[in-house]
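Sequence in, structure out. Go.
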Amino acid sequence: MTQTLAVTEIYASIQGESSHAGRPCTFVRLAGCPLRCRWCDTEYSFARGEKRTIAEIVAAVQALGIQLCEVTGGEPLAQAACAALLQALCDAGLEVLLETSGAFAVDQLDPRVHVIADLKCPGSGEAARNLWPALAQLRPCDELKIVVADRADFDWAQAMLRDKLPDLRAQVLWSAVASELPPAQLAAWLLQERAPGRLQLQLHKILWPDVERGV
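Output:
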């Protein structure tokens, strides 16, 4: 509990994505990320952040009084103490989500943590970072988020689900890149191709379109 992590912000909001969308949630946004996705909307988290102990982080989360907690970034798993933080949050009786890039192993994390991992499409500029063995190990309680910029990304992702992840057990979540692909177009492709999974919108951006941080 004395291990430290670099923290960008801790705040309460409405969960905007995943199967938990709409639920009140406390977010722990850790600092730093080795990836540079073209459409990243949290570039401010790349900065150094504030060093805080695991005990301090858990106390800050508990003080907000919300049962659901998500650890996100940046890329939270880029910090070695992230696994210990996740375990401490679980031990505190919280329901814990982890949002990660899909570029880091997740098999050694506390099994109580629900993993939401990205499948990086070519349009992101980071498709080479996909750690296929880690994505293949996702469980039924986990989720695979696919952010799509265009039809090429959509077709590529379908091929990867078929060829690289044929036995995927996690729920698939499809998202359209904001200001680049209309969600209705992505919905049409999902219907046309009978693609697995569900369409998701970024609820927090609908609720607070002019707010960039703390939502």
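Check: The beta strands are 4-14, 24-30, 50-53, 68-72, 95-100, 114-119, 143-148, 171-176, 198-199. The radius of gyration is 17 Å.
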